[in-house]
Amino acid sequence: MNTSRKSHWEHVYTTKDSADVSWYQPVPAKSLELIRLTEVSLQAPVLDVGGGASTLVDKLLDAGYQDVSVLDIASSAFTQAHTRLGTAATQAKWIESDVTEFEPSRSYAVWHDRAVFHFLTDAADRDRYLDVLRKPLQSRGHFLLATFGEEGPVRCSSLEVQRYSVEMLKALLEPDFRMRANELEEHCTPTGAAQEFLYSWWQAV
């Protein structure tokens, strides 16, 4: 595991409450909308990458999704989620791993990422991520990705990030994936700052 990356995120979630980080969403409305648009069944396996402390798992369980997994590099993020969810945390599966080193043992109908990809500024890390993504995604499976847009911040959580346009994502993902939809969203941070996110929905070809 990339120890420096893990140390960074463990520090974040041991020193900050999940509601105080800049990417916090009390209700991840756009992610929920995209997952519903895929029309996968409530029994379909859904993976939230980098969602250790995100409220997405709460909302998916509330909506009746029965096979939700959350992957994160930081166990301290899971601690916050488990405290928030209480006994409901047992309804989800929790996977502690660096996504670039993740070795999935099962397939997924939906792979959702609103927290990881734009932090992978090294091309080799991006390639490893995409290699991992291709392995467990079911035939015609859905890849839901939110990254910083072209007008988004250049740094987040004291780290450099990669901002994306639709054309940049197409260059990375086509022809293995077909874009179904994309939309820019202005995210308001807990401190009131505006951040541009690019949401995109891709389907494995």
Which sheet architecture does the biggest sheet show?
7 strands, mixed
Question: What average pLDDT do the residues reach?
Answer: 96
CATH class: Alpha Beta
Span between N and C termini?
30 Å
- Strand order in space, largest sheet: 3-2-1-4-5-9-8
What's the CATH topology name? Rossmann fold
CATH architecture: 3-Layer(aba) Sandwich
Poorly predicted ranges (pLDDT <50, ≥5 residues)? Answer: none
Number of continuous helical runs: 6
| Structure summary, number of beta strands | 9
- Looking at this structure, what is the CATH superfamily? Vaccinia Virus protein VP39
Helices and strands: which structural class?
alpha/beta
Spatial shape: globular
What does this protein structure show overall?
The protein has 205 residues and is of the alpha/beta class. The protein contains 6 helices and 9 strands; from the N terminus they run H-H-E-H-E-H-E-E-H-E-E-E-H-E-E. It has helices at 3-15, 29-38, 56-62, 75-85, 123-134, 166-173; strands spanning 46-49, 68-72, 93-96, 108-113, 137-148, 155-156, 159-160, 177-188, 194-204. It has a 7-stranded mixed sheet, sandwiched between helices. The protein has a two-stranded antiparallel sheet with strand order 6-7. Helix 1 packs parallel to helix 4 (75-85). It is globular.
